[in-house]
Design goal:
This protein has 297 residues and is α/β, with parallel strands linked by helices. 34% of the residues lie in helices and 30% in strands. It is built from ten helices and 14 strands. The strands form three sheets. A six-stranded mixed β-sheet has the order 6-7-8-3-9-10, with helices on both faces. A four-stranded antiparallel β-sheet has the order 2-1-4-5, covered by helices on one side. The protein has a four-stranded antiparallel β-sheet with strand order 12-13-11-14, with helices on one face. Strand 4 and strand 5 form a beta hairpin. Helix 3 packs across helix 4 and helix 3 runs parallel beside helix 5. It is elongated. 36% of the residues are buried. The chain binds adenosine-5'-triphosphate.
Length: 297
């Protein structure tokens, strides 16, 4: 995996309202990057700047270290927030047409379209006009449209909104396959549970500012609480009286504790061992939702 897309110190105002403030983050190939933030945080504006639909006031977006060109952008796939398929045109015809617009031969466009619609479980609806599809299926058709030309970078604005859980799983699997084949995938979402499950990397934005960015593992370590989960051989209630320890939860031999900053975890472990067997002792990693709450405050 390599860093392919760099968003560097991007600022953008609408009128006198600055909606992006020095936005910087990187996207790597072969990975799924989740772009997370509340409504109005600036996700769509950032994505539109990456795609060249909108200009930045200052700052740069580069692809493999070089400025964007039209040719580079033609190798990107974009699923905008305002879905844009023609209601009266058959799904497959539309996806083939978009593939052709991105430079595919008719044969390749048809082959990719058929494979994608099957993969997205829309094969049987290929001949139906878009307006006859349910909203969830229209969404799958949009995803097919963004993927038909095998883009090197996929930018998806809220690709999971409006999908039922089974459809989310299908789309997740397709995006994973694309990443495994080397594409870089950037998607926005406010569904933290989906992002938690899906993404390798994250950029968290609030009020136009990136509050945290990096791999999920890095962020979970970075924002680790001083919280530990402990399991001992007998009742763990003695932890209540241990200096520097706050008991958060107690369930017989199992406990969750917070340590004061000055408290050495190994000291607490030794105290536990002095009382008998220790079955488990380790830090509790924060969930993405917890990190999100912490960094957007
Ligand atoms: N063309 C525009 N003119 C004026 N203000 C705009 C324009 N586009 C976006 N904004 C404002 O910029 C801010 C950021 O919007 P943006 O759509 O980027 O947020 P978002 O994080 O994608 O939120 P959502 O999930 O609601 O789409 C919002 O306050 C929005 O009202």
């Amino acid at each position: 995996m390599t860093t392919v897309l760099n968003v560097d110190a991007v600022n953008r105002s609408f009128g006198d309202r600055q909606v992006l403030k020095d936005v910087s983050f990187a996207v790597e190939s072969g990975r799924l990057t989740g772009f997370v933030g509340a409504n109005g945080a600036g996700k769509t504006t950032t994505m539109r700047i990456i795609l060249g639909v909108l200009a930045a006031d200052t700052g740069t977006v580069t692809w493999r270290g070089a400025p964007m060109t039209r040719a580079v952008r033609s190798r990107f796939g974009y699923m905008p927030e305002e879905r844009g398929l023609y209601p009266k045109m058959a799904v497959a015809d539309q996806v083939v047409y978009l593939g052709r617009l991105h430079g595919l031969s008719t044969a390749d466009a048809k082959r990719n379209t058929a494979a994608l619609l099957d993969r997205l479980e829309l094969g049987e609806r290929a001949g139906d006009p878009v307006e006859k599809l349910s909203l969830g299926n229209q969404q799958r058709a949009q995803i097919a449209a963004a993927l038909v030309h095998d883009p090197e970078l996929l930018v998806l604005d809220e690709p999971f909104s409006g999908l039922d859980p089974l459809a989310v799983d299908t789309v997740v699997a397709v995006l994973r396959e694309r990443a495994a084949a080397g594409a870089a995938v950037l998607f926005s979402s406010h569904q933290l549970e989906v992002v938690e499950r899906l993404c390798d990397d994250l950029a968290i934005i609030a009020e136009g500012t990136i509050r945290a960015a990096g791999s999920r593992t890095y962020l979970r370590e970075q924002y680790a609480l001083p919280r530990y989960s402990v399991e001992v051989g007998a009742d763990a209630g003695w932890l209540r009286d241990e200096p520097g320890v706050t008991l958060v939860e107690l369930d017989g031999p199992r406990a969750v504790i917070d340590l004061d900053p000055a408290t050495d975890d190994q000291q607490v472990l030794r105290a536990a061992l002095a009382r008998g067997p220790v079955r488990a002792f380790g830090p509790v990693r924060p969930s993405l939702a917890e990190i999100f709450r912490e960094v957007i405050q």
